[in-house]
Amino acid sequence: MAETARQIADDLRARISSGELTPGDRVPGEPALVRDYGVAKETARRALTLLVDEGLAVRRRGSGTYVREFRPIPRVANKRLAKDGWGSGKSIWDADLGDREYTVTDLQVYESEPPRQVAKLLELDEGEPVIVRSRRYVVEGEPVQQATSYLPAKEVRDSPIAQENPGEGGIYGRLADLDLKPVRFTEELRARMPSQEESSLLDVSAGTPVVEICRIAFTANGRPIEINQMLLDAGVYVMRYHLES
Fold it and tell me: Which of 87, 121, 213, 219 is the most exposed place for a label (fewest CB within 10 A)?
């Protein structure tokens, strides 16, 4: 990609960051960029594509490119997994979104043999089944995350965890009811480019990266009780960590 496309994108990004261009504003189009920067139309198009791929702008067919109006989601892992949240009957999503609206779509709950890596992380015997909970989260009309949880079937198949609605506090609340309360979590994150199927699932443009997170929940005796594999639209999330020394 030509260096001038990056420079133009940098300029437009700075105008968005400074507030000169606010959410919902129309970004200068290709003709304006060609005129102002003296570049080819293709270079102007690439500059706008960079903003779209970063999640800062959206294209509207027949209208132009606009500053994205969707507010970023602050994901504070320490806060969202705190027991005083799900332990009091709240969803861990309340910590991320506050009063913003979200829905769960494409929910599937079923028993199956797990992928090999999941079986290894859960320390299961060969062929031992799991309860799978797969769902997609949509915030203010935009899909932002796909998540799939795996739990040992022998421990949870006769509980609300194996039903579509596990009740207040979600699956962690029900694990606590089963004396399998999670007390420790680990998360591994990596950014990568999505597959075509994943781009479609999260409705992101081809150049927008995703963040893949694998979380393991452990009981008090150190046993892994849940694996949650998440795929996030990198353009709508801000990762925050509250650390104390």
Answer: 87
Which regions in the chain score pLDDT beneath 70? 1-3, 81-90, 245
Cα 165 to Cα 23, 45, 109, 157, 159, distances in angstroms: 36, 46, 10, 13, 11
Q: Select from 141, 208, 92, 182 the least CA-distant residue to 231.
A: 208
Residues 149-192 pLDDT 10s: 999 999 999 999 999 999 988 999 999 999 999 999 999 999 99
Phi, psi of 225 (to 5 degrees): -115, -20
C-alpha–C-alpha distance, residues 9 and 6, integer Å: 5
Among the residues of the chain, which ranges form H helices?
3-18, 30-37, 41-53, 77-80, 83-86, 93-97, 116-121, 153-156, 170-177, 196-202
Q: Between β-strands 73-76 and 142-152, what pairing exists: parallel, antiparallel or unpaired?
A: unpaired
pTM: 0.81
Under DSSP, the state recorded for 223 is -
